[in-house]
Design brief:
This protein is α+β, with helices and mostly antiparallel strands. Helix content is about 45%, strand content about 10%. It has 2 domains: about 140 residues, Alpha-ketoacid/pyruvate dehydrogenase kinase, N-terminal domain (Butyryl-CoA Dehydrogenase, subunit A, domain 3, Up-down Bundle); about 190 residues, Heat Shock Protein 90, CATH 3.30.565. The strands form 2 sheets. It has a 5-stranded mixed β-sheet, with helices on one face. A 3-stranded antiparallel β-sheet has the order 1-2-4, with helices on one face. Helix 1 runs antiparallel to helix 3 and helix 3 packs antiparallel against helix 5. It starts with a helix and ends in a 7-residue tail after the last strand.
């Protein structure tokens, strides 16, 4: 517990400082927006509460308990960061280009994933330790957990849970729900963060359900295929070129390199503790999940924009409706809570679902690929790397 606390304390202050710097590099009129200013104030508050701890090591369990209380406050303070930023940039869309906002959000949201994961991992380890373990890990399903990581995560179980949630909302809105068929290797397990996978699958199923029903194909099943990644890719030596097509995930990809501030300082800055977070090995177990629907596919004029944050294609009527809180433009299927405490009802209609889902997939070296057959349907390929190899 002391090692976890000190590791967390080594990393978080620098990461919070990077986020403050990147916010301050935005145009002043944008940061002056009440929503974005609130996020800036939240980061200042969190950094100010951590700095007194950063001057010393945590050497006693009493200090660890007090530090954990600070971490719990930090996690709670930033629970609605995404939705607040979304509203802020929507209101400030006249003063900053879509390209600059996309660049900022890509880095900021990836960094937020890592910061929140580190904080929540320590909180989970704290509450799973004595004397809390009796309260937190009584069921058999809790076996195999390491903090927020499920070392025996079964993707099929996540798909079943998500299809029930999305199906109920779909039935409430449309009166019908498509059924999901899971094939491939549904018993496959690997080590991953369940809340991340749950968010990604929910977003992908939400789109598949909606397209299927609106195309009148609700009698056709949505097919989910689970295929473990092959394990015959040995780790290349330092003198060999990587044999795998997909490059290894880097600190920059995970938001641990301060790209925004480097525009100001002229160099990339990464804390010493961040440097301890090594890229995943090629041989790390993983899985590919294909979601196939008969929803008619994605229109060719829409396909190039599916990864854009919504403000790039928002029209004024949609923006005004969202900002005023009217629900006529909201999609009922968006009313699902996202990871990290963000209530997705406040993101409904803002189009953050797919870009954020891809960020979660890419954080550990995975990704999302889309194959659309216009007039027929869509295949989504979600590839995920596990967070490590757990020896049995």
């Amino acid at each position: 517990m002391l090692s976890s606390a000190n590791f967390t304390l080594d990393i978080l202050p620098a990461r919070l400082a990077h986020r403050i710097q990147s916010l301050r590099n935005l145009p002043f009129i944008v940061v002056a927006n009440p929503h974005i200013s609130k996020i800036h104030s939240n980061y200042i508050h969190s950094l100010s509460t951590l700095l007194p701890w950063a001057e010393r090591d945590i050497t006693t369990l009493e200090d660890e308990v007090k530090f954990t209380e600070v971490m719990a406050d930090l996690v709670n303070t930033h629970s609605n960061t995404i939705s607040i930023l979304a509203r802020g940039f929507l209101e400030a869309r006249k003063y900053i280009s879509p390209t600059d906002v996309t660049k900022f959000l890509d880095e900021h949201l990836r960094a937020r994933i890592g910061t929140r994961l580190i904080a929540e991992q320590h909180l989970a380890l704290h509450f799973s330790s004595q004397p809390h373990s009796e309260l937190m890990h009584e069921s058999e399903e809790s076996e195999g957990w390491n903090g927020v990581i499920d070392t025996k995560l079964r993707p099929a179980r996540i798909v079943e849970h998500c299809q029930n949630v999305v199906g109920e909302i779909c039935e409430l809105k449309y009166g019908v729900r498509p059924h999901v068929v899971i094939n491939g290797e549904p018993d496959y397990t690997f080590a991953h963060v369940p809340v991340h996978l749950e968010y990604i699958i929910t977003e992908l199923l939400k789109n598949a359900f909606r397209a299927t029903v609106e195309n009148g194909k609700e009698r056709d099943p949505i097919e989910v295929t689970i295929a473990p990644l092959p394990e015959d890719h040995p780790e290349p030596s330092k003198t060999e070129e990587p044999t795998e097509a997909r490059p290894r995930i880097t600190n920059a990809d995970q938001g641990t390199t301060d790209v925004a501030s480097s525009r100001f300082t002229g160099q990339n800055s990464t804390s010493a503790a961040d440097a301890q977070i090594l890229p995943l090995a090629h041989s790390t177990p993983g899985v590919t999940i294909r979601i196939r629907d008969r929803g008619g596919g994605i229109a060719p004029e829409t396909l190039p924009h599916i990864w854009d944050y919504s403000f790039t294609t928002f029209n004024e009527d949609q923006a005004s409706s969202t900002l005023s809180g009217r629900s006529n433009g909201m999609d009922a299927l968006s009313a699902i809570s996202g990871p990290g405490g963000d209530g997705a009802h406040s993101l409904a209609g803002l189009g953050y679902g797919l870009p954020l889902g891809r960020a979660y997939a890419e954080y550990f070296g995975g990704g999302i690929a889309v194959q659309s057959l216009w007039g027929w349907g869509t295949d989504i390929y979600l590839s995920l790397r596990g967070v490590g190899r757990v020896e049995s």
